[in-house]
Each structure stands twice: as C-alpha cells, then as structure tokens.
C-alpha cells in the first residue's frame, strides 16, 4: 500500500512537470506570436504610410503633367497662330515685292486686299463691353516725380491691378524699369530702386503700353513691327508687321511716335497715320492675343499741332497744344460706335504744366491718365459722364 502511494506521488510529480513544461512552451509560443503580430503591425503601418506618400507624389506629378499639358497646348496654339501670321505676312510681302513679270497679278491681289479692308472698315463695330463713359472734365492733377529726359512713357499695367509701375525713358532704347509700387517709385533716387528688364530689340517712340503682364512696343525697321513681350518670363511671345504702308509720325509735336498703342475697356488699339491720309489720324482695333488687326478707321482729327491721344470706351481723344500758355486741350474726338460726334467733343483743358505731353496712357482699371511732361510723371484723375448725356 505504501509502495502504491509512492508510485502515485511519483506519477503525479511527472504529470505536473509535464504540464508545467507544456505551459512554459505555450507561453513562449504565445510571446513569439505576439512579437510577430507586433512586427507585422509596424510593417503594415509603415507600408500604409509609404503608400500614402507615394499616392500624394503621384497626385502631385499628375497635376504637374496636367499643367504641363495645358502649357504645351497653349504654346502649340501660339505657334500655330504665329505660323498663320507668318504665312499672311509672307503673302503680304509677296504682293508688295513681287517679281516684275507678275506685276499685273500682284496689283490685282493688292486691289483685292484693299477692297477687303475697306469693306471690313464699313462694318459696324461690335462692342465687347457695355462701356459708355466719356470724359467730362479733368477732376484732379498730381505730380509724382521727375525722372528721365523730356520724353518718355510711364504707366501701370492697364489690364490688371498689379500695382507695378513701368518706366520707358527717352524716345528709343531697350531697357524697361519696373517698380513694385508707386511708393517704391516716388521714394527711389531716380531709377535706382527699379528692376531693369532688358528687351531683345530696341523700342522707338513713346507709343508703348503694358497690358495683362505683357509689354506691347514698336520695333522700327524697313517695316513697323509690333512686339508682344512677356514681362514675367522675359521672352517675346509674338510679333506682327503692322499692315499700313508709308507711315508718318502720328503727332506733329512728337515726331518720334509712329504708332501710339492704347488700352481701354474694349482692349488694345493703335493710333497711327499714313501718307494716304497724311493730314489726319487713323485708328485700328487689335486683338491683344493674336496681334491681328480687326478693324481700321480714318478719323477727322488732324495731326498738325497734336501732341498725344488716348482711347476710352471706344472713343479716341486727341490732345492738342493750346494757344494758351502751357495749356493743352482735347480738341477732337472720334467714336467707333458713332455715339459721339466731334461736335460733342468735351471742352476739356489740362491744368497748367511744364511743356508738351510726350505720352498719355489711360488706365481703365483706375480711370486715370498717366502723363509724361518734360520729364515729370503726372497723374490726371478724370471726371466721367455717359455718352448718351451729351
């Protein structure tokens, strides 16, 4: 009996030891499984984070590709437009400089072109806006500074409220001075505080204009060429030969300007003169995107004693030197929509000043005139009224 009890005790000890060993083994296995689960969790979290970062990178790259695609499409459209214009200019040059045996044919082509232009000019102008303002008076005058020579041009961007001020000093050159604000311009010593922008070709006259971050200026050579220069990218984005022969200075008091570019609520305009209509000033509407001339008019405004002009709501105002000392006045107007006649011209005198206006640039954004007068940069605030109220 005692031996049996001893056997049972031994057997119980063996079973207990086996159970303990089994428990220890299971505990080790569970700990190992927990370690693996923890490792898998860390790896899964890392993979999910990397996947999110990869997704963000792919989305950013896709957005960049979309922008690049749009930019490429825009450049291709621009190239296509320029190719079309080059073809038209080559056709135009062919009609002007054709070989002698083909003179009769070329004359017919020229006659056809003249006929097309005349018919287009007879068409009623299709306004792009409902603007019907005209000048009533000069409300105020402010002299900001004197910098540069007696002649030049200064302005803001006439198509957007960027606040930047641009200076083109003199009657020819290839440097544009850019100030961040009017305060930067007035507080700087000369042009020392400006950013200098170098153009690839020289401008001539005072007929330039800044419109929607682009400088439009005239390059004078055998032919008068209109240049469109991107002020943000500092590159020429387009150019076109102005389709008018035998051009003359548009203002007798500023003979350096053959084409005076202007911007109003309707867009881009060109004020010019030719030998065909040598006593009077002509007007053209230009597509600012393509530089195509959309329509042309002959105005009743004479060149003699004229110093500058500008356009507001499709009406060109020509400023003449008055008989009064140091005074100028608007003496002739021409409205492309025939809402205002020259008899309705406002009797507007400019305040007493220093000399002759070298340039007058209207800003439709601010309804201000930017004037260059004997080296002084002047602002004229305009009082407006509706054309129907005349």
Automatic annotation (TrEMBL):
Disulfide-bond pairs as recorded: 131-313
Pfam families, A to Z: OLF
Superkingdom per UniProt: Eukaryota
Major place of residence: secreted
Cleavable signal peptide: 1-17
Keyword annotations of the record: Coiled coil, Developmental protein, Disulfide bond, Glycoprotein, Secreted, Signal
Gene Ontology BP annotations: signal transduction
Coiled-coil spans in chain: 55-89
Cellular localisation: Secreted
A cellular component term, taken from the record's GO annotations: extracellular space
Domain Olfactomedin-like per the UniProt entry, residue ranges: 130-386
Similarity comment: Belongs to the OLFML3 family.
PANTHER family per record: OLFACTOMEDIN-LIKE PROTEIN 3, OLFACTOMEDIN-RELATED
Protein name per Swiss-Prot or TrEMBL: Olfactomedin-like protein 3A
Native source organism of the sequence: Anabarilius grahami
């Amino acid at each position: 009996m005692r031996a049996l009890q001893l056997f049972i005790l031994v057997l119980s000890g063996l079973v207990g030891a086996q159970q303990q060993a089994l428990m220890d083994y299971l505990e080790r296995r569970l700990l190992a499984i927990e370690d693996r689960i923890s490792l898998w969790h860390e790896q899964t979290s890392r993979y999910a984070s990397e996947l999110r970062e990869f997704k963000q990178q792919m989305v950013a790259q896709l957005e960049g590709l979309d922008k690049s695609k749009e930019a490429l499409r825009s450049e291709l459209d621009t190239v296509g437009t320029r190719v079309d214009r080059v073809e038209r200019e080559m056709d135009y040059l062919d009609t002007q400089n054709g070989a002698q045996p083909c003179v009769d044919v070329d004359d017919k082509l020229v006659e056809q072109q003249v006929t097309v232009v005349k018919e287009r000019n007879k068409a009623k102008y299709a306004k792009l806006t409902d603007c019907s303002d005209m000048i009533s008076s000069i409300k105020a005058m402010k002299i900001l500074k004197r910098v540069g020579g007696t002649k030049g041009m200064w302005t803001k961007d006439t198509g957007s409220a960027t606040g930047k001020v641009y200076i083109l000093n003199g009657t020819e050159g290839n440097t544009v001075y850019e100030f961040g604000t009017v305060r930067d311009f007035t507080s700087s010593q000369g042009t020392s505080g400006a950013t200098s922008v170098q153009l690839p070709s020289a401008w001539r006259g005072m007929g330039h204009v800044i419109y929607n971050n682009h400088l439009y200026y005239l390059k004078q050579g055998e032919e008068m060429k209109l240049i469109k220069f991107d002020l943000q990218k500092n590159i020429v984005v387009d150019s076109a030969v102005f389709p008018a022969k035998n051009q003359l200075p548009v203002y007798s008091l500023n003979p350096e300007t053959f084409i005076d570019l202007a911007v109003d609520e309707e867009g881009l305009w060109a004020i010019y003169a030719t030998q065909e209509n040598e006593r009077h000033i002509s007007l053209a509407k230009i597509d600012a995107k393509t530089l195509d001339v959309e329509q042309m008019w002959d105005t009743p405004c004479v060149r003699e004693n004229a110093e500058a002009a500008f356009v507001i709501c499709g009406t060109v105002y020509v400023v003449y030197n008055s008989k009064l000392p140091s005074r100028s006045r608007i003496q002739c107007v021409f409205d492309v929509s025939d809402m205002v006649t020259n008899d309705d011209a406002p009797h507007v005198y400019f305040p007493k000043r220093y000399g002759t206006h070298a340039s007058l640039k209207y800003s439709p954004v601010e309804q201000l005139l930017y004037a260059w007068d004997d080296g002084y940069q002047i602002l004229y605030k305009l009082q407006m009224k509706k054309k129907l109220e005349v």
